[in-house]
Design brief:
Length: 278
């Protein structure tokens, strides 16, 4: 999905989950005979925050539910709502991509703009989203960072983890997003992930005379049922590509880009070199 421009969407699925949680929290509070102000004081939140949660204007964070469960002696019933809210917290486009990734047996990614989201550290992701103009609100920014990190579970998912192939343009390694310390941590993360047995990570050097990825970043997800889905990201738009003619072109293009890039072993050495220069 697009690094910056996906706006939050209130869809039926997330809305139904949120309404259920709202009702449960309000019923538990009223059964305990607490006003919103009293309940807020008991869990360390302001009356306005409690009101916003119960009116559906704000999705409660996991710690909110944990504290509510304890204050209302709910025996884990309120804390259990965290699982229902885990994905409803995120924009619909993120949930859709996460589901597709969960069905994939192979994920291929080329990026010449930023490090792929599945590889980003928290600080790097925060810097990427923080660079967006107009700026996200603090809540929106936190929502997107949390969603990005949640997607990374797929890297180490037991048994079901897919094969992952990444080609990063050298520019993504040298662009100082977030500053030198953030980039050092990000390069170290790349070295760590590149050593996972289900991951191939390659670098396409700027010195290459041929680069078939100049058209911009894209991803390919090869699903369990044999369907291939492409994801294309441009300014203000994230496009899901399912037409076999188009996904075949992207698959061919990705193969050429991989051939133009350094081998995984050479790429590790290249990233170590960039890290040493930072």
């Amino acid at each position: 999905m697009s690094e910056w421009d996906a706006e939050p969407e209130v869809d039926e699925e997330a809305g139904a989950v949120m309404r259920t949680v709202q009702r449960q929290l309000k019923l538990w509070r009223e059964s305990a005979g607490l006003t919103q102000a009293e309940f807020g004081a008991a869990i360390g939140y302001g009356e306005e925050q409690v009101s916003s949660v119960e009116r559906g204007r704000r999705i409660p964070r996991p710690e909110y539910l944990d504290r509510a469960d304890e204050a209302l002696s709910a025996g884990g019933r309120i804390a259990a709502l965290k699982e229902d809210l885990a994905e409803a917290r995120y924009p619909k486009k993120v949930r859709d991509v996460k589901r597709l990734e969960g069905e994939a047996v192979e994920i291929c990614s080329y990026n010449n703009s930023v490090i792929d989201g599945l590889l980003q550290t928290e600080a790097y992701a925060r810097a990427v989203f923080g660079s967006r103009r107009p700026q996200f609100t603090e809540d929106d920014l936190e929502q997107r960072v949390a969603a990005r990190l949640a997607r990374q579970e797929i890297l180490r998912a037991p048994a079901t983890r897919p094969l992952l192939s990444f080609v990063l343009c050298e520019a993504t390694l040298r662009r100082l997003i977030g500053g030198k310390m953030v980039m050092r941590e990000q390069l170290e993360r790349l070295l760590e992930v590149a050593r996972l047995r289900n991951v191939d990570l390659q670098v396409l050097p700027l010195s290459r005379e041929e680069n078939s990825g100049l058209g911009g970043p894209f991803r390919l997800l090869k699903l369990k049922d044999g369907v291939v889905v492409g994801l294309n990201e441009v300014q203000l738009t994230s496009r899901v590509i399912t037409d076999p003619k188009e996904t075949t072109v992207l698959d061919m293009r990705y193969g050429i880009i991989r051939a133009q890039a350094l081998t995984p072993g050479e790429s590790l050495a290249f990233i170590e070199k960039v890290l040493g220069e930072s």
